[in-house]
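In response to a reviewer's request, we include the raw inputs and outputs for one of the modeled complexes. The four entities were modeled together in a single run.
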Amino acid sequence: MTFPSVSKPLDLIIVEDQKEVREGLRYLLGLDPRVNVVRTFERVETFLEALDTLPTPDLVLMDIGLPGMSGIEGVRILKKRFPAVIVIILTVFEDTDRILESIRAGANGYLLKSTKPDILLEQILGAVSEGSPLSPRVAKRILEEIQDSGEPSELSDYGLTPRERQILTDVVNGFTYREIAARYSIAASTVKKHILHIYQKLDVNSRAEFVKKAIREKLV
Amino acid sequence: MTFPSVSKPLDLIIVEDQKEVREGLRYLLGLDPRVNVVRTFERVETFLEALDTLPTPDLVLMDIGLPGMSGIEGVRILKKRFPAVIVIILTVFEDTDRILESIRAGANGYLLKSTKPDILLEQILGAVSEGSPLSPRVAKRILEEIQDSGEPSELSDYGLTPRERQILTDVVNGFTYREIAARYSIAASTVKKHILHIYQKLDVNSRAEFVKKAIREKLV
DNA sequence: CTGAAAATACTCCCTTTGGCGTATTTAACC
DNA sequence: GGTTAAATACGCCAAAGGGAGTATTTTCAG
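The model returned the following C-alpha cells for the whole complex.
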C-alpha cells in the first residue's frame, strides 16, 4: 500500500449533458483516490443553483455545448462568484473563437474530449499543483492568435519618412496642423503637406480613417 | 519486433550552451528510434551559419539564455528563413515577457527544463503530429495574459445611448456628418448633435481624439 | 399619466481640413 | 556632379468640423 498523497482528495464537479460521457468521467476519475467526484450536472443552470447549498468544489469540468446556457457563460458566472474555483473546459470544440472566449470568461484550462483518460486525470491533478492544462491543438490555436496579434507592426511601413512618422503620431494624438507646426517650429502649411502625403501613402482621406488605420496597423 | 512508426525519424537539432544538458538531451532523445539528433550547437550564431550547409531539420530545441545572441532572436531569424521548421523553446525562464516574445518570434512550443524526460519526448513528437507543447506553468501565464488583454471592453461604456453607439461606429469608419445622416435618413444636423454629445461623454473634442479613444477603449 | 431622457431638427459663426498647384533648400545616392 | 527624395513654405477654395443655443417629438419608466 502506497501513500502518494497525504492531502485531502480533490473535490470535483462535472457539468456535461451527454449521459455516457458524464457517467464515464465520473467512473474513471472516481477510480483515483486523489479525486472525489462530488456531483455531476447536465445543465449549467441547475449547477449554478446548487452551488448555494453545496460546499464549494475545488475544480469544475465544464462542457461547452449544453442545452440552455452555454458552458462558457456558466464559467463567467461561476468565476464571478467563486474566483478560486478551478475550471477546466472539456469539449469537442477547437475553434479559436470559443477557445479565447472561454479563457476570457475565466477558464483555467481547455482540454479536448479526445484527450486520453490517463492524460486527462494527470492534467486535472496538474491544474491544481502546476498550471493550466491545454490540449496541444488548443495551445496551437492560442499561439497563432498571439503571433498575429503582435506582429503586423513592421510588415506595413507604407514607406513613410521619419518626419512623416513623427507627424503621424501627433495626428493620432489629436493635434491640429497648427499645434503640430508649433511642436516642430515649422509652418502649418508644411505639416499639412506632410499629412496629405501620408494620406496618399495610407490610402485614406480623412482624419478619422487615418487614425483608425494607423492604430489598427500598429503604426503607433 | 514492433513497427510503431513507419515514417522516417524526426531530424532534430539542439541549441543549448550547457554541456551536460546538451549531451544529456542528445543521449536521451537519441534512445528513441523515432528521433534522430542531427547535431547540437552551443550558440545560435554557429547554428545559423551551419544551416546553409546542413539539410534542414524538422525540429529545433532552442535554449534562451545563451552566450551571444539570445535564443529568441535565433528563433526570429530561423523562422524567417525556414518557416516550416518547428521550434520548441526549452528553458528555465518562465516570465511572461520572455514567453510572449518567444511566441511572437515564431516559437511553436515552450517547455521548461523541469519537464521530465519522458514527457519531453512525448511533447516533441506531439509537436509534429498534434499541436503546440506548452508546460502547464507556461500555459498559465499565457492564459492570464489573454484574460487581462480582452477585458476592459465592458467596463467603460460612457453611458452612450444605442443611437450614439451606432453613430460612433460610423464616425470611426470615416463617415462624414452627411454620409451618416444618409445612412439613417435623418438630418445631418442631428448627427452632428449626437456626435457632439458623444464628444462630451468621452471627453474629447476632435475626430482624431474620438477615433483613437473609441478604438483604444474597444468601443468598436 | 407624467416627467425625464433620447432623438430629432435648425441657425449662426468660426476653425479646421482636404485637395490642388507651385517653389526652394537640403540631403542622400549614384 | 547631377538626379532624386525629403523637407520646407505659400496661396486658394470648397467642404467638413466644432461650439453654442433653441425647440419639437418620441419613448419609456415610474
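As requested, we also summarize the result in words. Chain B touches chain A through 44 residues (CB under 8 Å). Chain B has two domains: 10-142, 154-216.
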